[in-house]
Specification:
Number of helices: 2
Structural class: alpha+beta
CATH architecture: 2-Layer Sandwich
Order of helices and strands: EEEEHEEH
CATH class: Alpha Beta
Largest sheet: 6 strands, mixed
Strand content: 25-35%
CATH superfamily: YggU-like
Distance between the termini: 19 Å
Number of domains: 1
Oligomer: single chain
Number of strands: 6
CATH topology: Conserved Hypothetical Protein Mth637, Chain: A
C-alpha cells in the first residue's frame, strides 16, 4: 500500500498528504488514496476536532509524540499536508507497512 503514498523528506521531517474521512465509524488508517494516506476519524470536521483526531491517530499508530506531527496545509479541507518530525522517509514507510494496532 505505502509504495503509492508520496513521501518527501525535508530538513525538518517527512512531508505527506493525508486524505481525511471525518465522522467515520472508527478511527483507522484506511489505505492509500491518490498518492495520499487515507485516514478515517470519528470526530466531526468542526472546531479542529477532526484535525486533532488525525494527529492523535497517527501519533498512536506511528509511535511518535503528537508534538512531532504538524498540519502544514489544509487545516479546513479533507486533503491535508502533514509534516512528521523525527522520522526519515524510509522509517515512515516501514511504519506504514506494519499491521494496524488493535
Amino acid at each position: 500500500m505505502n509504495d503509492m503514498i508520496e513521501l518527501r523528506e525535508s530538513g525538518q521531517g517527512v512531508v505527506l498528504s493525508v486524505k481525511v474521512q471525518p465522522k467515520a465509524a472508527a478511527d483507522a488508517i484506511v489505505g492509500e488514496y491518490g498518492g495520499a494516506l487515507k485516514v478515517a476519524v470519528t470526530a466531526p470536521p468542526e472546531k479542529g476536532k477532526a484535525n486533532a483526531a488525525v494527529i492523535a491517530l497517527l501519533s498512536k499508530e506511528l509511535g511518535v509524540r503528537k508534538s512531532q506531527i504538524e498540519i502544514v496545509a489544509g487545516r479546513t479541507t479533507r486533503l491535508k499536508t502533514l509534516r512528521i518530525r523525527g522520522l526519515t522517509k524510509e522509517a515512515l514507510r516501514r511504519l506504514l507497512e506494519r499491521p494496524a494496532k488493535g
